[in-house]
Specification:
This protein is α+β, with helices and mostly antiparallel strands. It has 3 domains: 5-108; 136-314, Jelly Rolls, CATH 2.60.120; 323-389, Phage tail protein beta-alpha-beta fold (3-Layer(bab) Sandwich), CATH 3.55.50. It is built from 10 helices and 23 strands. It has helices spanning 5-16, 22-32, 37-50, 62-73, 80-92, 94-97, 103-108, 311-314, 329-340, 364-372, and strands spanning 136-138, 144-146, 153-158, 161-165, 171-174, 182-187, 194-197, 203-206, 210-215, 223-234, 243-247, 250-254, 258-263, 270-276, 279-283, 286-290, 295-298, 303-306, 321-328, 343-346, 353-359, 378-382, 385-389. The strands form 3 sheets. It has an 18-stranded mixed β-sheet that branches. A hairpin with a 2-residue loop joins strand 15 (279-283) and strand 16 (286-290). Helix 2 (22-32) crosses helix 5 and helix 4 (62-73) packs antiparallel against helix 5 (80-92). The longest helix is centred in the first third of the chain and has 14 residues, at 37-50.
Length: 390
């Protein structure tokens, strides 16, 4: 007798939450053996989307998993007890194991998982996340102020403009001036994100390994700043004075909007992602106007746009997360290098794509272990260098 959909959903739900009774498990396993793999797939996909665990979720080859289940189904009847335990491991266990980040590789391998022997070797060297903001403010006269070492309140005067550091570490410019002076805020590798309020009230969040050059006050017909690295902008509206973010030949022109600029020198593409308002992105003689949810990508030779961008992934850095969806290992390790202030060495190319989400406030070994769970990559920490191996 076929199981109704609500019964199937119930059995999968209680099994994945480890609340099923032995009889309910048996009912689920018998249903699985009839070849009804699609509801399992849909259920796990729903759990992944609903379940906000900070773990790696690798891609799953459902056809291959199902083939393995069918193989196990044909075991000799005298192995009935063993077969039942095999069903526990290979079929319904998908619902649970996928959350551990090992689903695909556990099912796809013909080998049984090997036991890990205890070792008396010393604990692996680890690297902690940034514990403070190590940003440096360079004033118009060339003086450098290490913000982590200075007190709160007024940290500098630029003409008639006060530069103020608040208790939460935010830097703000207060006052106005007709004289244009420039400051530079540099946030090095291994530093937490720093926020800045410009003289016009616009807010900027600066990622690690990033630099922003800007005037201490705005005058004239435009508000122009220069970026290297990554920053998120919430620009105050001023129709008479457009706000321009520039990086080399590329410029982002807005009146008042929210957008993210990823313009690291070691990335091959500069990305501008719009969250709110409208943005005009230009390079040379090319320009494009993007809408919320779109991204402008500027490479060596062309300017392209992408629709339906995953804003959560783009903004993960500002929200205290690493978030990777079909990312190559080079992209991941560039972020690791900037955040943990480490050098990265690749021993051989790795072509696999990776999915992961984890808090940035974690030791680097935790992120690396999640990636290693895919069995596609291995890491070795040597001092402040991470070696990446297939």
């Amino acid at each position: 007798m076929a199981l109704p959909k609500n019964r199937i959903s119930y059995l999968l739900e209680i099994y994945s939450s480890r609340k099923a009774t032995p009889s309910e498990e048996e009912e689920l396993f018998e249903w699985v053996k009839k070849g009804k793999e699609r509801p399992i797939k849909k259920h796990i996909e729903k759990l992944i989307s609903d379940y906000n665990l900070n773990v790696l979720v690798p891609a799953v080859d459902w056809e291959r998993i199902y083939d393995r289940i069918i193989e196990e189904k044909d075991l000799d009847n005298v192995q009935k007890k063993t077969r039942k335990m095999t069903w526990v491991r290979w079929a319904a266990a998908a619902v649970v194991l996928l959350f551990l980040g090992t689903g695909y590789y556990y099912f796809a391998s013909k080998k049984e998982p090997q036991k890990v022997a205890k070792s008396d070797q010393p604990k692996t060297i680890d690297i902690a996340p940034p514990n403070g903001v190590n940003a440096v403010l360079t004033l118009s006269n060339g003086q450098n102020i290490i913000l982590d070492s200075t007190g709160n309140g007024v940290v500098a005067m630029q003409g008639t403009v006060h530069v103020v550091k608040s208790a939460d570490g935010q830097l703000a410019y207060k006052g106005s001036s007709e004289n244009i002076e420039y400051n530079t805020l540099s946030n090095p590798r291994g530093s937490k994100v720093i926020s800045l309020v410009l003289a016009d009230g616009s807010k900027v969040w600066l990622n690690a390994a990033s630099t922003l050059k800007y005037p201490t006050a705005f005058a004239g017909k435009e508000r122009k700043v220069e970026i290297t690295g990554e920053a998120y902008f919430e620009v105050s509206h001023d129709a008479a004075m457009p706000f321009i973010v520039s990086k080399g030949e590329t410029s982002v022109r807005v009146l008042g909007t929210h957008f993210n600029v990823n313009a690291y020198d070691d990335d091959s593409v500069l990305n501008v992602t719009l969250l709110e308002g409208s943005v005009k992105v230009s390079k040379g003689n090319e320009s494009v106007l993007i809408a919320p949810g779109q991204q402008a990508a500027i490479g060596d030779s062309r300017l392209a746009t992408h629709d339906n961008v995953d804003i959560d992934e783009v903004m993960a850095w500002k929200n205290g997360l690493f978030s990777f969806k079909a990312a190559d290992i080079e992209t991941i390790m560039r972020q690791v290098s900037r955040w943990y202030n480490v050098d990265v060495v690749f021993e051989k190319p790795i072509t696999e794509k990776f999915y992961a989400q984890v808090s940035r406030n974690t030791d680097v070994s935790n992120l690396l272990k999640m990636l290693e769970a895919t069995k596609a990559v291995h890491f070795k920490i040597e001092g402040k260098t991470i070696k990446v191996m297939p």
